[in-house]
Amino acid sequence: MGNTGPPRTRTRPWCSHCGAGLVVPPAGAGAGSSSVRCALCHRVTRIERQYRSVGGNSMLSAPSVDRRELPAAGAAAGYPVARGNKRAVLVGVSYTGTDYELKGTVNDVNSMRGLLCDKFGFPSDCILILTEKSDDPRRVPTKENLLAAMRWLVAGCEAGHSLVFHFSGHGVQKLDTDGDEVDGYNEALCPLDFEDKGKILDDEINETIVRPLVQGVKLHAIIDTCHSGTILDLPYLCRMSRTGYWQWENHTRRPDKCKGTKGGLAISISGCNDDQKSADSSGFSDQSASIGAMTDSFIKAVGSEPGTTYGRLLSAMRSTIRDGQGSGRRLLTGRFGSFVRNMIASSSVQEPQLCSSEAFDIYRKPFLL
């Protein structure tokens, strides 16, 4: 076999806005430049092709780029460079000065940040926080900033990455127009400027942070809003009875409209069913400051049951909320009171929900962020 020369080395160009890998058309007959649109953030990056010497031979290639020096998604907007295999976006929207102002959302974010750092080893500089208290206008939870943060969360994700998206604020329902919702309604998050810029529908949330997940990537969404049961539009919803019986419901109404991942695992833990409203826990939490009932129950359940499973986690969260909501039920204490609270249904009590991109045994699969 004849000598074919030194092997061709290839360097992959990356989006200058979000850090995602770019697919560049084959080079022409000489050095030059071209503009490539990123499939993830849809921004345009200019690619300069140039000759470089490899083993004494000149060859055309994309410029050499050290992936570690590139900002992750949203860094152009002042977001942190995500290093390591854990990153999170924590959003608290208070709607300050409006008739629908919320008091506990910033406390929710601070509590979640403490949980992620102290219990699950998330680096503090890989946690992006959006609240109205931020002095940086790029970290205020507007619709534009929230979508940029969501793109930052999933950009360049690889096998072994653990991602967390937490949202505390208002959620609403809107009439479904494309026939992919079992109940006929889309769920939506309300950013700070939703009255002017619009809400973020579950379809867009799914497209932004669910479908990009490749094999080996794990996403947990903890959503503390009203009408949040299927807020990520995931294919499976877990129905759990008060006695612990559970089964997965397939919510794939249109097989032609994919709502799954690219092989990764997406799980959402939400504050209530799609037709329910959520509440804060200022009336029953042992904390002096108001905090969302769902966020409070989640943190307590994770803290009290190390190595818990998804089934035990969901049961513990529902028990915490049932114990705290409803003045009549709080008069019943002890084992008998617990039995009554578990057996008597009440539509006024929110029930946290579990959804997933794939079905699994909720009492065998360990919960780990």
UniProtKB/TrEMBL annotation:
One of its GO terms (molecular function) is cysteine-type endopeptidase activity. Pfam families: Peptidase_C14. GO terms for cellular component: cytoplasm. Residues 86-347 form the Peptidase C14 caspase domain. One of its GO terms (biological process) is proteolysis. It comes from the Eukaryota. Transmembrane segments: none annotated. Belongs to the peptidase C14B family. This is Peptidase C14 caspase domain-containing protein. The gene is LOC100832520.
